[in-house]
Specification:
single chain; about 260 residues; 2 domains; two-stranded antiparallel sheet; about 40% helix; about 10% strand; binds zinc ion
Length: about 260
Amino acid sequence: MADKIETHGTYMTVTTEEATTVLINSPGKPFPVRLPPKSRKLTSGEIALARLIFKESIPYEKVRIVRGGLLGIPDNSRNAMTPFGEIHLPIKVYDVIKDFSGPLTNKEDNQRWFIHEMTHIWQYFAMDLSVACRGVRLASIGGYTERDTSGRLMAYAYDLLGIDRGKEFKDFNIEQQADIVCHCYLVKYHANYVSQEPQLRNLISQQSRREYVLRDFLRNPLDRKLKSEEWTTKIHHQREKENNRIWYEAMTKVRTF
Ligand SMILES: [Zn+2]
């Protein structure tokens, strides 16, 4: 049953996610229809925020923020998913955050989150990269379920002063790229906030390396040599061989893309 129906002469607007309908050729019991989830465009403030980092490399007018969708995975994981050039937010988050650039509680952290998801948008549009496929591959090797020694999920963990010293931006996977970009944003534009948050202070020591790794990105985010090549690396193939978990298990444990 529709929550809200507005009639406009020859057509009507249905504001709901579920409705029922009856086939014209075979009238009978109505059957449920799932309508596309609600979505919105980026606000002018969000575009201005994203432009600080991504400049003109993203077709901002095409980007939509979607209320849930994707079989409910964003709601179950309580995280965003951005596999196809749209940011799917959990329904509760969509209903609260109308503008990531606005006066929000936890403004800095929400903006960091927004820049992380916008990096997936950049990967999709500017680098022509299949974020969904890469996310599934990361899930298949436990990237979203296994943690490193510091407790970080493997897909996201990076250490520019340690194991990842000497790597270029293209050498990182899609989640590492997104975290490197959003951490760079956070330290650069919210330095006071970062220095006051004990769990974030360790981001400061890597900032100069981060800016070095991002040097080509910051100069020209359309440079195709920035495209993540992580899936072709030796370590990825090695982990795939070592890992014998079946696809079903991997898929049911997907947390975030
Ligand atoms: Zn992500």
